[in-house]
Design brief:
The chain is 35% helix and 16% strand. It has 371 residues and is α/β, with parallel strands linked by helices. The protein folds into two domains: 2-126 and 305-367, Rossmann fold (3-Layer(aba) Sandwich), CATH 3.40.50; 130-303, NAD(P)-binding Rossmann-like Domain (Rossmann fold, 3-Layer(aba) Sandwich), CATH 3.40.50.720.
């Protein structure tokens, strides 16, 4: 199979969807690998490192024309969406549920879309989302510390506190991978951490893992309202696979938060958990509303692209190899996780959660994808 990897064009996005080790693996399987020139530069990987492993360095036009499977990191931007073609496969963080316009454009292109974020193993584990969620959770605290500084417009609070002065208050909604990693970093810094979730098992896991160093609360409108009221930092980390994130923090709650407090909504990729959030960029990461700093950067792991590229590449390569070797139909028949990753085929939505987000019809992937 001809596998193409495009350079990312989203603002601030320096990750790349392939590593030299991945090229070596695909080449050993007998596949042809086309990489867009300088695609790995932002992650510290040169063209020569890729060509030594057998990759062909080319331009984007050749990849769109020749590649059967295109691998990316982020969802296609407006100007990219109609360069795909029917019968071509796109494997990336697709995030269809975040935008109906994006969904319409991807469907109109006819491309077969396989989303990293919905590749789901039995038991609910999300193997391709997990490494980026780990990075995002850890980075969310690092970013929050910077935005809390007075020079950034924040309250001027040191999360760790100092002897004789109380630490900062960090509130985390959702204790999946993002929330757990945020809680671990914040608690290790010495912050006072509150974690909210609707799963008793996840709350119990966080409590045991962090040895009771964080406060765990069952999440409901009352406890969210109470916790946001005392937060210096609010991390929103709620994910419902394949569909829009639920709005749990209302504008009224935000208006009652401390002036100069910071919101990092990691759920913004899926629409956001905070009512007042909107997407922001690495160049302009925050805005003020009701005296609260809002950060809606949609690609937080891109701020540490070297770490993120290798972490993502380690996770994706086995799935890329399976699709390239067996074709998508064969790979999906053998691997349920890949099957759950298929979001659309030939202009038809094939993921129930994505369809429900917009009230659309859908069909199972195996009824529209040809062997």
């Amino acid at each position: 199979m001809i596998v193409g990897v495009l350079r990312e064009t989203k603002e601030g996005e320096h990750r790349f969807a392939m590593t030299p080790a991945g090229v070596r693996a695909l080449k050993s399987d007998g596949h042809r690998i086309l990489l867009e020139r300088d695609g790995g530069e932002g992650s510290g990987i040169s063209n020569d490192e890729f060509t030594r492993e057998g990759a062909e360095i080319t331009d984007a036009d050749s990849i769109y024309t020749d590649a059967e499977l295109i691998v990316k990191v982020k969802e296609p931007l407006k100007e990219e969406r109609f360069r795909y073609r029917r019968g071509q496969m796109l494997f990336t963080f697709l995030h269809l549920a975040s935008s109906e316009t994006l969904t319409d454009d991807v469907l109109a292109s006819g491309v077969t879309g396989i989303a990293y974020e919905t590749v789901e193993e039995p038991g609910g584990r999300l193997p391709l989302l997990t490494p980026m969620s780990e990075v995002a959770g850890r980075m969310s605290i690092q970013m929050a510390m910077r935005f809390l500084e007075k020079g950034s417009g924040g309250r001027g609070v040191l999360l760790s506190g100092v002897p004789g002065v109380a630490p900062g208050e960090v509130v985390i909604i959702g204790c999946g991978t993002v929330g757990l990693n945020a809680a671990r970093i914040a608690s290790e810094l010495g912050a006072h951490v509150t974690v909210l979730d609707t799963s008793y098992e996840r709350l119990k896991h966080v409590d045991q893992l962090l040895h009771g160093k964080v406060i765990t609360l069952y999440s409901n409108p009352y406890t969210i309202e109470q916790a946001t009221g005392y937060a210096d930092v609010l991390i929103a980390a709620v994910l419902v696979t394949g569909t829009r994130a639920p709005v749990l923090v209302t504008e009224d709650m935000v208006s009652r938060m401390k002036k100069g407090s910071v919101i990092i909504d990691v759920s913004v990729d899926q629409g956001g958990t905070v009512e007042t959030i909107r997407p922001t960029t690495h160049d302009n990461p925050v805005y003020h509303l009701h005296g609260v700093l809002h950060c809606g950067v949609t690609n937080i792991p891109a701020s540490v692209p070297s770490t993120s590229t290798f972490a993502l590449g380690n996770a994706t390569i086995s799935y890329i190899r399976a699709i390239a070797e067996k074709g998508l139909y064969g790979a999906a028949i053998e691997n349920e996780a890949i099957a759950r990753g298929i979001n659309c085929v030939d202009g038809i939505i094939t993921h129930e959660a994505v369809a429900k987000t917009f009230g659309r019809e859908w069909l199972p992937w195996d009824r529209v994808l040809r062997n």
